[in-house]
């Protein structure tokens, strides 16, 4: 058990210079923080942390939360058109899970002294990012399977190391999220396998979806390490554990065999086993496209944001009702109910 007492410098000196005192105090706290990071221990909300560490966590966790919430849209689009009751029930549960992930993550971000309203406002005004991948359209039912197989597959590859993140609330949220993401990945693979065992037209539909999603999925891992401004510091802080490029490579290596089992071709003529490296080589990605999508110019950016803002506005009455209920339960609302 550790407490803030770790951070306290001894009793104040009678003649202490407040400026020097503040510096020493800060140095002691910084040293305690550094020691915890070096020992691979968790930082908890009540612990002192450098402002930059807090800011980075708020950025990454909130972007992650926004991605989960916006990520409900591409698949949500297919709930009413799922090909069977079973697929519909599975998809409903999955999309609902993504909403839940957003809520765990907003809660984790709130432990860093930011308000959820401010985070949501940053998303709605375009100040905060969310994952590039959710700005691509779902044109056929096969896209839903491919999102499960490849998008959730990439998300798991990225998120399993985050279960060891140095910030306790984020790490714990990720453990739960990763368990659910593996179900998501498997249901996507299962839906695609069913289609690949179907008609020629169904197989062509799956191949077309794989062709459209493969490269955008590889960009989910972020820019190359050499062009990733945040990686060095976030890795030194134990937030990120594996670099963007290394995760991308792990994902490619794992996915090639899955594509073979499924019977689809990954759309990259440069994809080949490199004996010397012990990894698959793959073609360079189109980072101009990535930048365009991040700057709001992807195929669906405007639609995704407009849908999110509309849902938020239409949900105003639900938030009001929940607040009224909470006030009543706390006994600070003397208003009578119309009906009991
Ligand atoms: N899209 O210096 P780095 C999911 C930004 S959840 C948009 O390398 P960092 C589940 C980055 O923010 C998917 N922006 O940054 C699901 C930074 O911008 P800033 C989301 C991107 O943070 C499945 C700038 O570029 N997962 O799929 C992207 O060290 C199905 C420079 O980049 C997470 O968020 C991108 N792809 O590394 C839901 C996981 N890549 O803020 C529904 C947690 C980079 O400096 C359906 N996040 N940027 O202006 C992370 O692991 C990291 O934040 C990275 C980026 C790896 C995404």
UniProtKB/TrEMBL annotation:
Organism domain of life: Bacteria
GO molecular function list: phenylacetyl-CoA 1,2-epoxidase activity
Family matches, as Pfam families: PaaA_PaaC
GO BP annotations listed: phenylacetate catabolic process
Species annotation: Cupriavidus plantarum
SUPFAM superfamilies reported in the protein's UniProt record: Ferritin-like
InterPro entries, A to Z: Aromatic_CoA_ox/epox (IPR052703), Ferritin-like (IPR012347), Ferritin-like_SF (IPR009078), PaaA (IPR011881), PaaA_PaaC (IPR007814)
GO cellular component, as recorded: cytosol
Protein name: Ring-1,2-phenylacetyl-CoA epoxidase subunit PaaA
């Amino acid at each position: 058990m550790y407490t803030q007492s770790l951070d306290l410098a001894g009793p104040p000196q009678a003649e202490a210079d407040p400026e020097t005192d503040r510096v020493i105090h800060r140095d002691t706290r910084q040293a305690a923080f550094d020691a915890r990071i070096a020992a691979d221990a968790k930082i908890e909300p009540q612990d002192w942390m450098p402002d930059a560490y807090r800011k980075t966590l708020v950025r990454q966790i909130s972007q992650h939360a926004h991605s989960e919430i916006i990520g409900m849209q591409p698949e949500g689009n297919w709930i009413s058109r799922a090909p069977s009751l079973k697929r519909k029930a599975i998809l409903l549960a999955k999309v609902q899970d993504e909403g839940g992930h957003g809520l765990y993550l907003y809660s984790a971000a709130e432990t860093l002294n930011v308000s959820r309203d401010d985070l949501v406002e940053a998303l709605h005004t375009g100040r905060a990012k969310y994952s590039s991948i959710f700005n691509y359209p779902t044109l056929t039912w096969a896209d839903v399977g491919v999102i499960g197989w490849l998008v959730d597959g990439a998300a798991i590859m990225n998120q399993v190391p985050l279960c060891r993140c140095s910030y306790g609330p984020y790490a714990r949220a990720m453990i739960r999220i990763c368990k659910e993401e593996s179900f998501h990945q498997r249901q996507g693979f299962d839906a695609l396998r069913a289609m690949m065992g179907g008609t020629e037209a169904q197989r062509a539909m799956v191949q077309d979806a794989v062709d459209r999603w493969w490269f955008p999925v590889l960009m989910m891992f972020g820019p190359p390490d050499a062009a990733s401004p945040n990686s060095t510091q976030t890795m030194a802080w134990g937030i990120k554990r594996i670099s963007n490029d290394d995760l991308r490579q792990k994902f490619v290596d794992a996915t090639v065999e899955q594509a073979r089992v499924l019977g689809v071709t990954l759309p990259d003529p440069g994809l080949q086993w490199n004996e010397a490296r012990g990894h698959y080589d793959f073609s360079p990605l189109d980072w101009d496209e990535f930048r365009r999508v991040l700057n709001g110019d992807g195929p669906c950016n405007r639609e995704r944001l407009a849908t999110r803002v509309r849902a938020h506005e239409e949900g105003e009455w639900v938030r009001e009702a929940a607040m009224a209920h909470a006030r009543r339960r706390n006994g600070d609302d003397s208003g009578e109910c119309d009906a009991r």
